[in-house]
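Chain A, query sequence.
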Amino acid sequence: MINALRSLAVLMQTRRGVTALEYGLIAAVIGGVVITAATGFGTSLSSAYDTIGNALSTKAAGI
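Chain A, predicted structure.
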């Protein structure tokens, strides 16, 4: 138990753990933004393909 407290005290005095945590949080936020953007873009792209497909089907049916 004493060794764990000593290790914790040493970690609290260094900045390496804090920096790693900050980088991890930044990566998580960037990942969330990328996923949100990709989902929105995918939905928009799917809608565009549906519109083009329907237009082509309508033209083909009229031939």
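Residues 23-63 form one domain. The chain is about 95% helix and 0% strand.
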